[in-house]
Each structure stands twice: as structure tokens, then as C-alpha cells.
Amino acid sequence: MSTKAPEEKHVSKRGCFKSTRSRILLAVVAFIVLCAAIIPAAVVTTLHKKDSMGPKSKVFVPLYVYPAPGAWTPLENVVSTHPDVNFTVVINPGSGPGPDSVPDANYTREIPNLASYANVRLLGYVHTSYAQRNISLVRKDIETYAAWPTASSNPDLAVRGIFFDETPQQYSAQSLAYLQNMTDLVKDLKGFGSDGFVMHNPGAIPDSRYLATADSTVVFEETYSTFQQRSSAKIFTAIPDSNRTQLCTVIHSVPDTVEGSKLRSLVKEARKVADEIFITHLSTDYYASFGTKWADFVDLVAA
């Protein structure tokens, strides 16, 4: 019996050692498995942040496309497939609302269809000739748009504000009063609903004192090459007392070679500086049709 006892104790110690070693091995395996799960997730997160498109933007659309049957389909397609993207769409029946109380049958058919989308804000086109156009004519255009729902007996034939084209860049007290007068009118008229959105288009950076008279201002309407020459985002550092939520940029004549990752970089840069953007590869009549990369542009705004 005295010779067996030590053997039993020895076996017992080896058993404890094996058990401890097993627990260590299991812990190591568990740690490796955990790392395998965590590290790829961290890498994906890092890559996602690195590849982020930045702040969200709206798609701005100068829709100077006559609404023959099917002509607005490229717009309706992207609007319906991107419900989380907001679209600001300018319609222009005749360098304004046109001579009649309501636009022609094609417009009266298509405008309600487009207005039915919750992510679309329609604006009516009015030009001001850099605040030199007779103010009574400007008021008449605004009031005509506002009266569309009543004149047509169709509440869906409506716009939600005005896009003022050819607004001034250089400051004058008279021009400021002119623009403020027009903004007040848009905000007061019931025909634009509760929004009464006002957008200006000087096509370049205006005196910052004008910014407060609009909800949004087009501060760049130029070619792709000009956007590149001016170091893109650095263009907008010259606008004091502003932020991207007030700004819109329009870039046209983008070369066909700017696609894929290059187009992604361009959209990312535009999103960085403006709340509303429009980018087209068309170099002529760029507001009268949709370019071949129109859907790609909208996909990148949605990204």
C-alpha cells in the first residue's frame, strides 16, 4: 500500500496539470476567435470612415426639359428609387410661368405627378435681370405660380416656392430691397403652401448680405474645368457668414472620362461644400436633357 499511494498522488497532479493546460488552450482559442471577429469589423469600420462621402446633399435639378410624354421619366425613375434623397426641381414653362393662367396640357399632366413624391420640392422659374427687371412683372410671375391650384381647380398643380434667376452679385441697397420685397411676397402667398422656399441664382459668389434674402443660393454655376482650376472646395471659403446649408453648386461640362472613382471624388467634393448639387456631363443644353451618367450622379448623392 505504501508504494501505490505515491503513484496515485502523482497521477492526480498530472491530471490537474492537463486540466489547467486545457483551460489555457481553450482561453487562447476563444481569444483568437474573438480577435478574428473583432479585427475585420474594425477594419471595415475604418475603411467605411475613410471612404465616407461626407455630409448628405440634395439633388438640384434645373428641369428645363419640355414634358412631352416620357421626357421626365429619367427624373421620376431616380426620385422613386431614392426615397431618402431630396430633390429641388425648378420648372420653367415659358421663361417663367408662361403667358396664361395655367401652363399647357403637358405641364398640367406632369407637374402633379412629380409633385406627388414626398422627396420632391418644385420651384417656379422667375428671372430678375439682376434686380433690374420691372418689379411689377416679377410680382405677376410669382402670383401666377401661386394661383395655379385655384386657376386649374387642381391642388396638385402647384409649386412650393420660387427660383429667382439672374440675381445680382454686387451689393446695392436698392437691389437688396428689391430681393427682400420678392422674398416677402413668396413667403406671404398661400399658394406656395407652408414652405414658400426662395432660391437665388447669381451663378457666382454674391455679396454675403444677399444670402439672408434666400433659403438657398447658387454660388457656383460653371464648367468642371473651372471647378478644378479654382481648387474646388476652396472656392467657397470666400463666402463670409455662410454655411453649406445655404449653398448650391452647379457643375456642367464634366468630361466623359470622369466616371467611376473620379466621379465619386467629384460628388464627394461637391457634397462637402454645398447642401444642393447638380453635376452633368453635358456641355451644351445641359438643362434641357439628362446626361448618360445622370443615374450614376444621383446614386453617388445617395451614397
Low-pLDDT stretches are 1-20, 41-50
Note the main sheet. Answer: 8 strands, parallel, barrel
The Cα radius of gyration reads: 30 Å
Indicate the proportion of strand residues. Answer: 15-25%
Overall pLDDT: 87
Strand runs, count:
8
- Supply the helix-strand structural class: alpha/beta
Strand neighbour order, sheet with most strands? 1-2-3-4-5-6-7-8
Task: Compute the number of helices.
Answer: 8
Shape: globular
Helix fraction bin: 40-55%
Order of helices and strands: HEHEHEHEHEEHEHEH
Distance between the termini: 80 Å
Short description:
The protein is of the alpha/beta class and 303 residues long. The protein is 43% helix and 16% strand.
